[in-house]
Design brief:
six-stranded antiparallel β-sheet; 13 helices; elongated; seven-stranded mixed β-sheet; alpha/beta; 13 strands; 357 residues
């Protein structure tokens, strides 16, 4: 029964994906192919619900379907077979569920991937080192100072015109769909400005379709923004050919003036994709810190004990065919300074304003 329920949940997820990505045929194809490979990831006849069985199942799911083994072997020497040999002796029949979870979480942490999670009823294993190990370079206190109290809110975005005729748009999440009419109203309201700041800092992602929708307001022609692949087999190197990702200009109001996008290490997943798109658009400058990355389209499976695992299954690349899994560098590295903070000044916003002037 659990196998049937698992497939049912996966097909429901397809329905959601179709709603979220109506124009992303490549991503949909990637999902269907990966689904066909993953529905049989865990077979109760193969792996028992024991500490050793759960370990074997989880290791195999990642081994057959994770998409960044070669890249991470080159970046920091990841050897998944060596991980197997090192972690296998740590499991025995006397382990508690909590102990199992802790060791499995440690094994997944070897991947250094913010899209890799293990979900139990009592905890979620996660790797947030892409932002936790770095300065935040953003302050809610300072953002509130720049926004004031009379800023406008539309489709989850906060915006206003600063005192030097600079437009300021705070985009803290792509967690919901953006309305085309809302974006028209926002850009029309900011049209008197000499330039626009899009503050993306600590945007942890959400819907890639929303990231594309906003980026489409900053190009007047269809442009190449990247590539993606999908898994075609269970081998580490079983991938399709790279498929082009092209950004189409919006049919609504499009911005024609300079834009500065503010980034920090908290910019991840769909927000990372947004930065990748914007770097391909004209009159756009990226300012702040390197983004957090997250360039793998995530999918899910389950191990015998019922815990769910999420992992990166489809790799995405920039227009130069380079992976952005570990982040995208800004055009100008700028960090918040203690001296500016003490004066109520956001160093990164002020740097952007100076560029626009």
């Amino acid at each position: 029964m659990r196998r049937i329920d698992q497939k049912s949940r996966q097909w429901k997820a397809i329905g959601k994906l179709i709603t979220w990505f109506p124009r992303h045929f490549g991503m949909l194809l990637c999902y269907f192919v990966t689904l066909s490979l993953c529905v049989a990831c865990v077979d109760e006849d193969e792996f028992a619900d024991t500490p050793q069985g759960n370990f074997e199942a989880l290791w195999r799911i990642i081994d057959e379907h994770y998409c960044f083994f070669d890249y991470k072997q080159k970046e920091y020497g990841l050897d998944w077979n060596e991980v197997y040999r090192r972690y296998k002796p740590q499991f025995d029949a006397a382990m508690t569920k909590t102990q199992q979870f802790e060791v499995l979480a440690n094994m997944l942490a070897e991947l250094r991937d913010g899209h890799v999670n293990l979900y139990a009823s009592f905890d979620i294993a996660r790797n947030w080192s892409w932002q936790e190990d770095y300065p935040t370079n953003v302050s809610d206190t300072l953002i509130r100072r720049y926004l004031g109290t009379d800023y406008r809110i539309a489709t989850g975005l906060q915006y206003r015109i600063l005192d030097d005729q600079t437009g300021y748009l705070r985009c803290s999440s792509f967690g919901s769909e953006l309305g085309e009419g809302n974006l028209d109203d926002i850009l029309y309201s900011l049209s008197p400005c000499r330039g626009l700041i899009i503050d993306l800092r600590s945007n942890g992602g959400g819907l890639v379709s929303s990231a594309e929708q906003l980026a489409a307001r900053f190009t007047n022609e269809k442009i190449l923004v990247g590539y993606m692949q999908h898994k075609t087999g269970r081998g580490h190197n079983d991938f399709s050919k790279m498929e082009e990702q092209r950004l189409k200009p919006s049919k609504g109001i499009r911005w024609q003036k300079p834009v500065v996008v503010l980034t920090n290490r908290g910019v991840f997943s769909a927000a990372n994709e947004f930065v990748q798109y914007m770097k391909c658009c004209p009159n756009v400058t990226i300012v702040g810190d390197r983004t957090g990355g997250g360039a793998g389209l995530p999918f899910s499976s389950e191990i015998p004990c019922g815990w769910s695992v999420r992992f990166s299954a489809c790799p995405m690349y920039d227009r130069n065919r380079q992976s952005t899994e570990f982040g995208i560098d800004p055009d100008h590295f700028v960090a918040l300074t203690d001296a500016d903070f003490a004066r109520g000044i956001d160093t990164i916003i002020e740097y952007a304003r100076q560029l626009l002037r």
